Amino acid sequence: MKKLLPLLILLALLSESAIAQTDVYDKIADKTCDCIAKKDFSKFKKDEMQTEAGLCILSAYSELENEVPKKQKIDFKDEKSLEKLGTNIGIKMATKCPDGLMKMSGDESASESNAPSSPVSLSGTIKSYKIETYQTIVIQDKDGKNNILLWLSYFPGSDSILENKEATIGQQAEVSYVSQEIYYPTANSYVTQKVVTGITFK
Questions:
Q1: CATH 2.40.50.140 occupies which residues in the chain?
Q2: pTM score, whole prediction
Q3: Spatial CA neighbour of 86 closest among 127, 36, 43
Q4: CATH number of 116-201
Q5: What is the per-residue pLDDT across 15-62, written as a single tens digit (0 to 9) for each?
Q6: CA–CA dist 93, 17 (Å, integer)
Q7: Is the model's pLDDT at 109 over the cut of 50?
Q8: Is a pLDDT exceeding 70 seen at residue 143?
Q9: Long-range contact list for 186-194, CB < 8 A, 24+ apart?
Q10: Which residues contact 67 (CB under 8 A, 6 or more apart)?
Q11: What is residue 117's predicted lDDT score, i.e. its pLDDT?
């Protein structure tokens, strides 16, 4: 029991740190969305749009910097650190204010095409979970095709995965998803992707 107690304390601290990080990035994304919503991007050129969007992110981050865990703070002189911040906030904005991301790209007319489609179901075997620009779920259908779906926000059934990802690999599941245009900050473009809205393990 004496050996177990320090481990439990460490896990608790790590969990609190992860929750704090999620909360503060949500707040930064919300402030960034508000900032972008107030700007008329039609007046800017392409490079000016990116600059204005970047200023919104940095302004929001600066306001909440004291809430950011020490290990997660960015170095304003480090380009990679700034890119990571932009990617993290872009991921949050993809679900919080997709219209704001379209304004950043100068394509507000894409509002309708960016709207999620009606949910579609896919049955198959969970093959793996990967983190690329976004968290993805790879599921193999009955024809042996691997389908890559994006995990952008909470959905029914995600708790089962969070409890033990490894235990769900190889399980049969039915996944519901919508097709949606997702903004990729590093490429500064939209790509139509399958976004998970729910999962049921059989």
A1: 116-201
A2: 0.47
A3: 36
A4: 2.40.50.140
A5: 344 434 457 888 898 998 898 888 877 777 766 777 888 888 899 999
A6: 21
A7: no
A8: yes
A9: 186/83, 186/87, 186/133, 188/50, 188/105, 189/105, 190/102, 190/105, 190/107, 190/110, 190/114, 193/148, 193/149, 193/150, 194/147, 194/148, 194/149, 194/150
A10: 20, 23, 24, 27
A11: 58
CB 172 within 8 A of CB 194: no
Written as one letter, the residue type at 176 is S
How far apart, in whole angstroms, are the C-alpha atoms of residue 150 and residue 191?
12
Query: 15: exposed, middle or buried (C-beta count within 10 Å: 0-12, 13-18, 19+)?
Result: exposed
Name the helix (H) or strand (E) containing 181. strand 172-184
AA identity, residue 48: E
What is the length of the chain?
Answer: 202
Amino acid at 117: S
